[in-house]
Amino acid sequence: MVSNQLRLIISIIIAAVVLVLMQIQYWYGDYGHANLIAVKNQLHEQNRLNQEQINKNNILLADVKDLKSGLSAIEEHARLDLGLIKPGETFIQLSNAPITYSRQPLLEIDESIEAVDSVPEPIPNH
């Protein structure tokens, strides 16, 4: 009778150890739950990149279709990319650069002031 109980206890212990080892493999193993989450994140990122590329491709396909269908798209590209100006047109270029000079005229020029080509960068205090 004792031997049957001992066998049962040993079987339960072995089953518990196998169950614990399987859980460790599932949660922390190479192909376990943590790896599944990482693969799902990679898949989500790749799907996002694929969608961006599909959108870019659709824009390029529409551009190609426009270029094949009419001269207005070709003219637009020539104007924007190559600076096309037709005869009789006036070209005006506006600058977005900030104004770095004063519009007020200098009243008096001081001869003691030297021109400086560049101003050295200040040394940061540590």
Automatic annotation (TrEMBL):
The keyword Signal does not apply. Pfam families: DivIC. It comes from the Bacteria. The chain crosses the membrane at residues 6-28. GO terms for cellular component: cell division site; cell septum; plasma membrane. It is found in: Cell inner membrane. Residues 1-12 are cytoplasmic. It is a single-pass type II membrane protein. Residues 29-126 are periplasmic. Keywords: Cell cycle, Cell division, Cell inner membrane, Cell membrane, Membrane, Transmembrane, Transmembrane helix. InterPro entries: Cell_div_FtsB, FtsL/DivIC. PANTHER family: CELL DIVISION PROTEIN FTSB. Belongs to the FtsB family. Essential cell division protein. May link together the upstream cell division proteins, which are predominantly cytoplasmic, with the downstream cell division proteins, which are predominantly periplasmic. Part of a complex composed of FtsB, FtsL and FtsQ. This is Cell division protein FtsB. It comes from Moraxella catarrhalis.
